[in-house]
Amino acid sequence: MIAAEVTLDSPDFGHLAPMIAAAETELAGAGISGPLEIVLADAGYWHHVQIEQVTGRGAVVLIPPDAGKRQGTRPGWNGGLYDFMRRVLATDRGGELYANAKA
Fold first, then answer.
1. What does each of the 103 residues of the chain score in pLDDT, given as a tens digit?
2. Sign of dihedral through CA atoms 62, 63, 64, 68?
3. d(CA 54, CA 44)
4. Exposure string (b/e) for 8-27, b if CB count within 10 Å is 16 or more?
5. I want to staple 50 with a disulfide (CB 3.0 to 4.6 A). Which of 17, 28, 39, 69 is the partner?
6. Which residues are registered as beta bridge partners of 40?
7. Which pTM was predicted?
């Protein structure tokens, strides 16, 4: 855990970019520079535009599009980036990396 923010908002939706900015600020304060390589977040942080912005900066983003409690996929969340992320997380390496989010 590198950064945390307290908000009055109940969902995490839309907070991916602000949390990454907070993490980068904390890392810079600790003397660690350079771009983030891997970003792990839970399903609540899923935000198409922000994921694309982060990956456009060169980071690998691993966020499941479906919450662990959900049976099946979210209605309308099929194809494109949704299915790509499911495939990546289903690989041995993707699952191994994402397991670090729980640590």
1. 677 767 766 678 788 999 999 999 999 999 998 889 999 999 989 999 999 999 999 999 999 998 877 777 887 889 999 999 999 999 999 999 999 877 6
2. positive
3. 16
4. eeeebeebbeebbeebbeee
5. 17
6. 62
7. 0.81
